[in-house]
Amino acid sequence: MLARRGAAALARRGPRARRLSNFHPLAQHVDRPDNKVETPFDFTPENHIRAEHILGKYPANYRASGIIPLLDLAQRQHGGWLPVAAMDKVAALVGVAPMRVYEVATFYTMFNREPVGKYFIQLCGTTPCMVCGSEAIKKAIEDHLGIQEGETTKDGLFTLREVECLGACANAPMVQMNDDYYECLTPKSVVELLEACKRGEKHEMGRWGSLPMNGQVSCEGPRGKTSLGNGPPAPYAMREDLKGEVDPASVKAHMGY
Ligand code: FES
C-alpha cells in the first residue's frame, strides 16, 4: 500500500521524479507468480562455467566483486530481467547477504527488476544529450510507440527508459537498444530505427561497434576529421592480424556477450 501511494505521488510529480526515485516501476519489487523468493532460478550448466570463470578473476576474499558481472549473466539468461531468485542465487554464489545484491541491482539502471520488451531502449537524458535534443527524441519515441518513459508496449516489443550518461556524449543524442548504441539521432531517424526493429531488420553496427545514424563513421565532427590526422595509429592498427578491421561481433564474443 505504501509503495502504491508513493508511486501515485511520484506520478503526479512527473517522469523525472519517478526516474530518480526508488519507486520507479523497474526498480520496485512486486511479488508476481514468476517473481517470488520461492520461484526457482539456477544458472544453466554453461553459465555455471562462466560464473566460475568470472569469480576466478577475484581473490577469494573479494568474491563480492563478481556481483555485477554475475547479475549481468543472470539477466541475459533470464530474458533481460532479474527475478528475486536470481539475485538470491548470485548472493549465494559470492557469499554475501541477499540485501547486498539487491542494493546493487536496484542502484544500476542496467539491471531490470521486471520484464522488459524485446528491444530495451535506454535513452540518455544527461546534459550533452539533453542540449542536443534528447527531449525531442524521447517525445518521438513516446508518440510513435504510444508509451511513456518506463513503460512497455502492449505487444512486448519495446520498453523505454531514460537513463544517465551512457558515455557516447560526442555523438549526442543517443539511445542504447539492448547492447547496441545508436547515435547522432534525430526524431526522424529514431522512428526509422523503431520501424526497422518492428520489421525485424536489425541495423548492422558500424566499424566501432556503434552506429551514428547520420552517416558518420565514428565520432568525427560535422566537418570530418580536422585534428590528429597524422597522429599515431589507433591501437587496433598496431596488430597485424586485425588489418585495420574490427568486427563488432568478435568484440562482443570477447566480452562474453
Ligand atoms: S550525455 Fe548522453 S551519452 Fe553522455
UniProtKB/TrEMBL annotation:
The keyword Iron-sulfur applies. CDD domains: TRX_Fd_NuoE. Its cofactor is [2Fe-2S] cluster. GO terms for cellular component: catalytic complex; membrane protein complex; mitochondrial inner membrane. Residues 219-245 are annotated as: Disordered. Pfam families: 2Fe-2S_thioredx. One of its GO terms (molecular function) is metal ion binding. This is NADH dehydrogenase [ubiquinone] flavoprotein 2, mitochondrial. Binds 1 [2Fe-2S] cluster. PROSITE patterns: COMPLEX1_24K. It comes from the Eukaryota. The lineage of its organism: Eukaryota, Sar, Stramenopiles, Ochrophyta, Pelagophyceae. [2Fe-2S] cluster binds at C124, C129, C165, C169.
